[in-house]
Amino acid sequence: MSLPTRIALSLPAPTGSVADTIAMAQQAEALGYDDIWLADAGGLDAFTLSPMLLEKTTSLRLGIAVVPAYTRTPAVMASTLAVINQAYPGRFIAGLGTSSHAIIEGWHGLKLEKPLTRMTETVALLRTMLAGEKTAFTGETLHSKGYAQAPSDPAVPIYLAALRSKMVERAAEIGDGVILNLFPRRVLPRIMEHVAIGAERAGKNPADVEIVCRHMVVVSEDKAAGRAAFRAGFVGYYATPVYNKFLAWAGYEEAAAEIRAGWAAKDRERTAAALPDELIDEIAIIGSPDECRELMRGYATGGIHTNIVSCIYPTPEILAATIDTFAAANFSF
What we know:
Layout: E1 6-11, H1 18-30, E2 35-38, H2 46-55, E3 61-64, E4 67-68, H3 74-87, E5 92-97, H4 101-107, H5 115-130, E6 136-138, E7 143-145, E8 158-161, H6 165-174, E9 177-181, H7 188-201, E10 210-219, H8 223-239, H9 241-249, H10 253-264, H11 268-273, H12 277-283, E11 285-287, H13 289-301, E12 306-311, H14 316-325
Parallel strand pairs: 1-2, 1-12, 2-3, 3-5, 4-5, 5-8, 8-9, 9-10, 10-11, 10-12
Antiparallel strand pairs: 6-7
Helix pairs in contact: 3-5, 6-7, 8-10, 9-10
């Protein structure tokens, strides 16, 4: 049986308000969205916010994309996941990622080391803990002995964020789903090939691995303003080692090198110019309602099951237009 195609809304609210985020979740449910997905990159804590949103809605599925694997120990995560899963069974997905150097090393003062190994060992420990088994684990990046908690039933779905080939394969191999982000459209078939390799390595049918993507969306006739919003918000991402290498891996070696050079020189204009309009149009969904809906359907055709709408230029008018464009009354796959 093929997985359903879903439309989702990204939260928290642009205001950073808990009340506004709850209101947006309720609005999304009323408009026929299938899911809400939370970011967890500072500000409103996603684990704290999740049960609030689940309590104030009735049927929406909620996922986190993503919780950094480095900032909470597996025991802390396992106990948190168990509470949310027990209170709202079948409605919650834990999305984990290694995050970026800016967040892990800059914000948290930790070392982003051996990300593939850290993710693998984190998932192994979480599976053990959530199954109710006592830990006796010694790995390269983590160890735990003697921790046990009650088994979680139903099992907590664990989805993993991935960029390049090895992490995509590992995410499909050990995760229940794969979370994608900020990739040029032309590289999607290549990503899907690596999803299949990882799934088959674990004896899974690749079609059973849910693919989730947070899309950066601006529904507006003013494409120049939308591109400027993307450039302002994300050129810094592509300057970090993780995303810079990803951009090169995706076939944009020259743009990656120029972004890296501009950032190192602290030349913000040069760095921003290294993200040309053509590349932004390959990554973001910007345009009229019809143009944006067509692009979103293209992602679904390419293999993405859960498509998250993240309005990156959230003036009240554009935010309202973006949410309305993908409401059930106006959009279907």
